[in-house]
Amino acid sequence: MLTVKNWPPKGGVINVGGGVFAEAMKEQGAEVYEVKWQPPAHGKVELIDILDKLQGRDDIDEANQKAIERFSSAKPVLIDIGIAREVVPGFDDRMLLHAGPPITWDKMSGPLRGAVIGAILYEGWADSPEEAEEIASKGDIQYSPCHEHSAVGPMAGVVSPRMPVFILENTTHGNRSYCTLNEGLGKVLRYGAYSDEVLDRLRWMETVLAPIVKEAIELSGGIDLTSMIAQALHMGDEVHNRNRAGTSLLIRALVPYLIQVDYPQADIKRCLEFINSNDHFFLNLSMPAVKAMLEAAHGVPKSSIVTIMARNGTEFGIKVSGLGNQWFTGPAQIVKGLYFPGRSEEDGNPDIGDSAITETSGVGGFAMADAIPIVQFVGGTPEDAIRFSEKMYSITTTESKHFNIPILNFRGTPTGIDIRKVVETGILPQINTGIAHKDPGVGQVGAGLVNPPWECFEKAIVAFGKKYANGS
């Protein structure tokens, strides 16, 4: 990969590789043009051999086109709210769903443990955090990734049986996706907090917020989320860490029906105040919306498109359309960003959450150029936001038909991460995210930028090569 600064040169010296020669020439007054270069596939011969067998393959390109067509034709619609154990596929009474790839209690990070403890208390399976931790560690609870149940969960992503969940239907392909309702920021369950304040809020959401919003959704006849996301992007969101426009558009869509529901006005007022005060409320709709789109693109033989990127706070995992349900994992990375006053990187847990499904679909960090003010929240400059989006075109298959970037002349967002391109270029997907405290029970401590570990893509290309390198 060649990345050239100040190109094309108008005389002077071009330096490729190490900087010693460049510095020596600068000291002599020469104008130096630096070329940042690295060999394909990190210089690993076995990976280069695999890439040679996978590049220029019409069958793989055709499979990727099929996956992209299924993704692009998907139409996720918010149709209802239901109880998790009643509507989420494969949900058992003593099961907790979580973000990221599969994990056991002994390997869980602090915020995921905290969310598990909180969920056990919320379900009434324990009377104290100590008792909840004992239950969590004894093997009485079945832990399962949200993604294994067509669901997604931000941060810790814990879903317990009685929690209300949004129900989305992809009206093109018929598949459904699910996500809990967003609690807000700070000390909340998804960041590993489980105080009485957190549990009381969850109970209110279950008994008041969910029933009222459910009835409004039913009266609406369904809310088209593809067009809502597209509009939110034009209003300054990237629908991962910035959701102010999306939440505002959702309120606008719900209000005509909220005023018709048969509930006390005080409860309806409180529901509106809660949603209005929580800019991130739409996150729990943007995530399952793109999940429904990507799930439609999963399972296409020979497709090298990534359909899941997810983190559990210990490991980062991806899935590839043409490789079925196999996870490819690596260690979750430390997020670089802005911390709340009194907090530092030493407080932060490694990357966590299913919210990277947004980047997987071409929004979130891939659409940062749509949400330049986001740099005030996650760090960087306006130029960085544009550069991050532009860089992602190098590792994707196409440009989105639905989501675009006005500042880039309405170019479609980079869509369809191709593991071949990631391994060839060494460029890793750009993710922006929140930061949870490393200890259970604390909550959010900041937000920032992160990339997946290289290992995920290295393992995936090896598996893809074994399955498809010979054209089978």
Descriptive notes:
With 472 residues, the protein is of the alpha+beta class. The chain has 3 domains: 2-37, no CATH class; 45-70 and 297-468, v583 fold, CATH 3.90.1700.10; 76-288, Enterococcus faecalis V583 fold (Alpha-Beta Complex). 38% of the residues lie in helices and 20% in strands. The protein has 16 helices and 18 strands. The chain has helices at residues 20-27, 45-54, 58-73, 84-87, 110-123, 129-137, 196-220, 225-234, 244-258, 265-276, 283-297, 357-361, 375-378, 382-392, 419-425, 454-468; strands spanning 2-4, 13-16, 32-37, 76-83, 95-98, 142-145, 164-170, 176-180, 223-224, 306-312, 315-320, 328-331, 336-339, 352-353, 396-405, 411-417, 431-436, 444-450. The strands form 6 sheets. A 4-stranded antiparallel β-sheet has the order 8-7-4-9. A 4-stranded antiparallel β-sheet has the order 12-11-10-14, with helices on both faces. The chain has a 3-stranded mixed β-sheet with strand order 1-3-2. Strand 2, helix 1 (20-27) and strand 3 form a beta-alpha-beta unit. Helix 9 packs antiparallel against helix 10. The chain is globular, with a radius of gyration of 23 Å. The two termini are 29 Å apart. Residues 1-8 have low confidence and may be disordered.
